[in-house]
Amino acid sequence: MNHASSSSPDIAPAITSRQGQLFRDGRPYRILAGALHYFRVHPAQWEDRLRRLAAMGANTVDTYVAWNFHERTEGEPRFDGWRDLEAFIRLAGEVGLDVYLRPSPYICAEWSNGGLPFWLTGRVSALRTSDPAYLAAVDRWYDALIPRIVPLQAAFGGPIVAVQIENEYGSYGSDRAYLEHQRDALLTRGIVELLTTADGITPDMVTHGSVAGALPTFTFGTGVSTAQELRLQEDALMCSELWGGWFDHWGEQHHVRSAQSMIGTVEELLAAGGSVSVYMAHGGTNFGLWNGANHDGALQPTITSYDSDAPIGEGGALNAKFEALRAAFAPFHDGELPERPAPAPMQTAQAAPLRPVASLRAFAGSLPVVGESTPLPQTFEQLGVEDGIVVYQAHIDVPADATVDIDTLHDRATVFIDDERIGTLERDRRLSLALPGAARRATLTIVVESLGRINYGPRTGEGKGIMHGVRINGRRYVHGWTHRALPRDGVPSAGAREAADAVAPAEVPAKSAADDAGVARAAIDVETPADAWLAFPGGAKGMVWLNGFLLGRYWKVGPQQTLYAPGPLWKAGANEIVVLDTDELGPTVEVRESPDFGPTEEFVGS
């Protein structure tokens, strides 16, 4: 079967699959791709990272399109600034790379909610199916997205040579009508290039993830021979995600894969006549709160760094994997590969004191009220809060020596009675706290943090916040709730600046010596803006803003010990660091010249 799109019989795709291989301009062809996500790289660094990818020997850049990154507010999709997908695609073409586009609606990618908008998953339960409400939202999104990428296809002089339908659907569902709808949604809107699907290497996954008219491709760390057995004889062999590294969850070790292990699988695939996309070639960063999470008995939130032990490191460093791939890919090019770009300049190491601004309790009380008071606590979705922190407050009658119990918490809560911190509760672990002392009237304040929206598996789309209710002694519900919220953005926008401004010293009381958690500020003087790595020794669990931009989280459970702070976010002169630590503020912020990803373990992926 010829897996070429056929929306117009007069327009030929750049690449076709037939006779067991890919062809381009009548000649056998290999896609040599590397995954690099525009939404994980500062736009000012897009060109640098793309040039590093080309120097690695790739002829194609592979990127997802994260729906929730573009349409954070329903009905208001944006394609400007960091979200200028068309600019990224054109830039790739100018660098000399083709584009393998994977345009959602679901991407997984260890990205918040698997790329699905929170406002959609908050009201639609039958995700990734032919449910009318779900398809209507997807169609509206495609009406905004696809016309922008159609002119950028190779058939019209652009760099896009392949487009993926959905993502690893065979490991999630079995709605054939849904996959056909997604295929037809691309074709009828003008996609003419090679269509693909991507699934793991089991017969069941391939069966339920494939759809007529699209080339089935595979995802694996190792498994070339299995993929060869699963593919049809007439289909070209392609691994659209060859896992050269792996991602990390908080509390784990940093996953690495040796260059020897990775290149062994790549060379086996190339020797079998296959095409490849290395996932990730450059991982980048889950800036802000865009990290996803898994759930395997307990929530497993992904760390801020998405370095993934990739050939091109989070800060752009080139390593042994880069050199191994450059050598393996070079024979497939007619001329010399581009020169390796020079290392990025780094800031000189220094440290600055973190000066407390407000206790966590005072800060929580300073946040703006969201919505009306309600009998039961509202979820993030009901409040229209994408991520970050929601503060729940109610006036309660506390019996002597009572307990407070949260009925289903997503994800982590710090609990206060009046101004006294009584403990921390965590999803899947501890959901009850003792309230010692005599019977009294008090204010109950619960500071709830979303740690990352699940991006893979049947729990994708789960809500955040207090999901059902709060009870005293496991019996009596607490009624009458007020909600305050701190939405936190992972992109340079007014929202992130407002989050930083919300902690201005004039607006909240000074930090209490009795509460070591809360908000602090530091000033970092820089002569020449450049990349840096930030560390917060002594800090327990916090979020960090640099000049109003939310870099992400640190957490003492590791493995990540430093946050990447790209050069474009710095300015000459004074730079402001704002830290919100829910557990314990450290005394200083350190600027370091190299990253620390924590203790490592060899891991191939599964």
From TrEMBL:
Catalytic activity: Hydrolysis of terminal non-reducing beta-D-galactose residues in beta-D-galactosides
Keywords, alphabetical: Glycosidase, Hydrolase
SUPFAM superfamilies, alphabetized: (Trans)glycosidases (SSF51445), Galactose-binding domain-like (SSF49785)
Glycoside hydrolase 35 catalytic domain segment(s): 21-328
Protein EC: 3.2.1.23
Record carries keyword Transmembrane: no
Broadest EC class assigned to this enzyme: hydrolase
Annotated ranges, domain Beta-galactosidase galactose-binding: 522-575
A Pfam family annotated for this UniProt entry: Glyco_hydro_35
Beta-galactosidase 1-like first all-beta domain mapped to chain residues: 377-486
Family of the protein in this entry: Belongs to the glycosyl hydrolase 35 family.
Protein name: Beta-galactosidase
Organism in which the protein naturally occurs: Microbacterium profundi
